Amino acid sequence: MKDVLSSNWPHCMLQEIYQQPEVVAKCLERYGGVGIRDWQARIGEQESEIHILACGSSRHAGLVAQYWLEQLAGIPTRVRSASEFQEAPWPLTPNTLTIAVTQSGETADTLAALRLEKVRRAQSGHIQQSSWLGITNQPGSTLTQEVDHTLLTLAGSEIGVAATKTFTAQLVVFFCLTLDLAVQRRAIIEENLSQLLVALRQVPALMQQVLEQEKTIQDLAQQLVAAEHCILLGRGVNRAIALEGALKLKETTYLHAEGYSGGEFLHGPIALLDARVPVVTIVPNDSSSEVMLATVEKAKAHGSPAIGLVSQNLAAQTTSLFDSQIILPDLDYRLSPLLMVIPLQLLAYHIAVLRGLDVDRPRNITKTLA
Ligand code: M6R
């Protein structure tokens, strides 16, 4: 096991990827129980809808959270890219919890969207006010001064431009919030809740097991180092992980990567495939696994190299299908994004290293777009 505190890391991004089990454990210690807790400050108790504003990886965390909030807590949830909000704000709804998510707490688009929403609500006298929640990694940031409540992601400072540990910390905070809301609203049965809590507490150890596969991922990076395009597919709760994996690849390796929902992919983007376009498919053990594997068959028929991120209990049946597969420990599929994202972070990291790129400071972008 690597010593995450040592300073002998070739890049901050790699160290930050390895810090994830520790960060998740810390977030679970703070937020991982269920019931009215000091951190919760009755967030979302009255609200019937949730609106999430964010950019980049923080928006992807919001998309995973949308799945959880709707499917586990039964709360209608919208997610909008904060950078699009000025042009297309959503219709105002009563009893709404508005959540702004930004690891830095300073992203100009996210703050501007939040401010616009506050003005719109203030001007719409007849509509009940929203409550305002911020999720950020930066105590004292501008965001924290502009919301009623803040949930800190406790990831410690993240230097690499690519969000890694702050992303998984955002997911954990969102998941704990979802469970609390689900319990408050009696939207979840006891048995389901206990299963999820048991699974949640296993996450740090299982993340560690995923990290132990770095060598296999490094070999895969070698196979993909010359690729110019890459497609990533996920469904349901992992659709946003396909988007996040594609973002990691784009910003660290400059490879043209796109993430799609496995279903939507068949409605046009599949025309992109040929032997030069590898397809990475996320296959947790859930009700969509069969349909995902059928999509992989189709991709292979067009000559694409097929790479799978596959749950352990499906691995025997998928070995002959995939050209390469990374096997992930079994975990309740609803929590699988927390594991599935790690091989994608490592893949992006290793391709960037093999390409001789400045992993921590990719060209054209800065850590915070303030
Ligand atoms: O600080 P924020 O979370 O608001 O940043 C939002 C995006 O700029 C950020 O997630 C960006 O996409 C990252 N470089 C992704 O790795």
What is the H/E order?
HHEHEEHEHEHHHEHEEHEHEH
| CATH T-level fold name of the largest domain | Rossmann fold
User: Beta-strand percentage?
Assistant: 5-15%
Bound ligand species: 5-amino-5-deoxy-1-O-phosphono-D-mannitol
Distance between the termini: 37 Å
Q: Mind describing the biggest β-sheet?
A: 5 strands, parallel
User: Which strand order does the major sheet show?
Assistant: 2-1-3-4-5
Radius of gyration, Cα only, in angstroms? 20 Å
What's the structural domain tally? 2
- Any guess at the CATH architecture of the largest domain? 3-Layer(aba) Sandwich
Can you tell me about this structure?
With 370 residues, the chain is of the alpha/beta class. The protein folds into two domains: 12-206, Glucose-6-phosphate isomerase like protein, domain 1 (Rossmann fold), CATH 3.40.50; 213-354, Glucose-6-phosphate isomerase like protein, domain 1 (Rossmann fold). It is 43% helix and 15% strand. It contains twelve helices and ten strands. The strands form two sheets. The chain has a five-stranded parallel sheet with strand order 2-1-3-4-5. Strands 7-6-8-9-10 form a five-stranded parallel sheet, sandwiched between helices. The protein is globular, with a radius of gyration of 20 Å. The model has no long low-confidence stretch (mean pLDDT 94). Residues 55-58, 102-104, 107, 110, 161-163, 247, 251, 368-369 line the site of 5-amino-5-deoxy-1-O-phosphono-D-mannitol.
Key structural traits:
single chain, 370 residues, Rossmann fold, five-stranded parallel beta sheet, 12 helices, binds 5-amino-5-deoxy-1-O-phosphono-D-mannitol
